[in-house]
Write a structure and sequence with these properties.
Keywords: ATP-binding, Nucleotide-binding, Transport. Helix content is 37%, strand content 24%. The chain is α/β, with parallel strands linked by helices and 261 residues long. Helix 3 crosses helix 4, helix 4 packs across helix 5 and helix 5 packs parallel to helix 6. Bound molecules: adenosine-5'-triphosphate (ATP) and magnesium ion.
Length: 261
């Protein structure tokens, strides 16, 4: 499977009569299962807009988002359902991704039922427990009846990851998924996400401000500036021989927590 952006652009209408904003400008990239692609760039460079187009949450103004060569804009019915299941989002918890009134069992169970991933109450329950344990919430049964308010920040983020992987996606688009977490918690959640590439073959488009995080987990790095992809390539290359001045500045601005491998 391959998820691709081909020359995608997004132009937002200007707020209150202002000039239109070109949030993404002819960006091309791709991600396959098992690959960990990090997207970095300063605030406002278009990372979230690109992510939302890859997820089919907003339409591209120009260009195409393709799943295995098929334009998601023209997908209907079963094909659309297949896309919705195969490409999952994990967003930042403070953005209100979890309903505070729903227990973990309900939050994940409704996704299992929507995508018909299991049959009967016992089947759904087993599927939820399996997903919780895959993201390190063990034993899974202990988390089923909890409300989001009864979980730590790291546990909530793990529930969001469980809700994404419970439908057996091939690709996860994660936008600042660990940015709000404390350093030690962040490291654990990241390890879990990285493990899912190895154990389940999940591919990631992983958006982050956090360059030490990129250093730790990415295979490939995409650098955005003012809506454009200005540089992309294998992590080692981007970190050791950045071609763009902008990338160099971005790397220099980040606190170095560990030496480059
Ligand atoms: N709904 C919208 N309407 C108008 N302009 C928008 C909208 N969403 C984003 N923008 C603008 O598009 C540009 C790109 O925004 P985007 O959120 O994609 O950046 P980002 O790289 O994710 O930034 P951050 O790192 O701060 O999350 C910015 O100039 C932003 O102000
Ligand atoms: Mg953003």
């Amino acid at each position: 499977m391959l998820l691709e952006a081909r020359e995608v652009s997004k132009v937002y209408r200007g707020r209150r009569g202002g000039a239109p904003v070109v949030a993404v400008d002819r960006a091309s990239m791709s991600v396959a299962p098992g690959r960990f692609v990090a997207v970095v760039g300063e605030s406002g460079s278009g990372k979230s807009t690109l992510a939302r187009m890859l997820l089919g949450l907003i339409p591209a103004s120009d260009g195409h988002v393709l799943l295995d060569g098929e334009d998601i804009a023209t997908m209907r019915g079963e094909r659309m359902a297949h896309f919705r299941r195969s490409v999952q989002a994990v967003l930042q918890d403070p953005a209100g991704s979890l309903n505070p009134r729903k227990r973990v069992r309900q939050a994940i169970g409704e996704v299992v039922r929507l995508h018909r991933m299991a049959n009967g109450a016992a089947g759904v329950r087993a599927k939820i427990v399996e997903a919780l344990e895959l993201v390190g919430l063990t034993p899974g049964e202990q988390f089923l009846e909890r409300f989001p308010g009864e979980l730590s920040g790291g546990q909530r983020q793990r529930v969001l990851i469980a809700r994404a992987i419970v439908v057996d996606p091939e690709i996860i688009v994660a936008d600042e998924a660990v940015s709000a977490l404390d350093a030690s918690v962040k490291a654990g959640v990241l390890r879990t996400m990285r493990e899912l590439t190895e154990r389940l073959g999940v591919g990631y488009v992983f958006i982050t401000h956090d360059l030490p995080v990129v250093k730790k987990v990415a295979d490939e790095v995409i650098v955005m500036k003012s809506g454009r992809i200005v540089e992309s390539g294998p992590k080692a290359q981007i970190f050791s021989e950045p071609r763009q001045e902008y990338t160099r500045t971005l790397l220099a601005a980040a606190p170095v927590l560990e030496p480059v491998a």
